[in-house]
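[agent] plan:
  1. take the single chain provided in the ticket
  2. run structure prediction with default settings
  3. attach structure tokens to the ticket
  4. add a short note for the reviewer (M.T.)
[agent] executing step 1
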Amino acid sequence: MSNPSKIKTAIVILNWNGKHFLEQFLPSVVKFSQGIENEIIVADNGSSDDSIIFLKTKFPEVKILAFEKNYGFTGGYNKALFQIDADYFVLLNSDIEVTENWLKRPTELLDSDPNIAAVAPKIKAFHNKTMFEYAGAAGGFIDKYGYPFCRGRILGEIEADTGQYDDECDIAWASGACMFVRASLYKSEGGLDDDFFAHMEEIDLCTRLKNRGFNLKYTSQSVVYHVGGGTLPNNNPRKLFLNYRNNLLFLYKNLPKKHLLVKIFSRMVLDGLSAIVYLLKFQFAYFAAVWKAHISFYKMLPNFKQKRRTAKSENKPIGIDFNRSIVWNYYVKKNKKFSDFI
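[agent] step 2 finished; step 3 output follows
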């Protein structure tokens, strides 16, 4: 017998002192997400601003889950989602403007095939709506050394949207800025790995789902606009530290044994070269962030050894048929777009 209180799609926005984002972007979510099968939920990570008062006053139809402290991106979402009963979750950043019918095609894809675990929409830049946005663009992929990249964004090179990715395709990961995910699978996989705290945690989750045999899809028929860098700007040393450390943790946790040592060693060499470049540019905070990331990685290895035992890795490199280096192609071969690689 079905559960009459269960909703189909729970749109969950994680908030931490983001009243200004809620004021600006929540109206679009409410406007374009109405329906008896949908519920909008704001999970508040112990905000000290007036976020909760604002929500209660201006958006009484929005459900609030108020936490006593900041649990980070991973902890906050896990704490929220494990107490929500729905068919599908939408992890939605507070700095995203959604568009009409943004829910329609992703939920259709999830409805059509139980083997589809997650769906990514087209993510474009809010401040320049002709451009793709860094965090997700037109679907995520991973190169042979574990560097994430997107159709529409290779390293720091971001493309204009000219319709070149107006399609649907398999992807390696969906951005946590806006990700549709089957709730039962999110919960069975234990959700986001809280040891990541923030950054690359959604790539880890997507890889675990793929290693269980599930598919991930991108659709251009759902479009959202993302500000980006809302919590930590892209030039923040803390963000750099998390990206370098979490990338190594992700590789160690998910790589099949036959590729582990070579890939980890290769990434550490490349990270070292990056640190040298930062040093030569007198960017000492960035230089320090890389080395602190490696030290933190070593300290966390004992805990991640157990996680490797429970992760089911396929006997092939991470990614979808992309056994090349985007660093080599970008800096040496001067390939700046996804279309240059295929």
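[agent] step 4 note for reviewer: The first strand starts at residue 7 and ends at 15.
[agent] ticket updated
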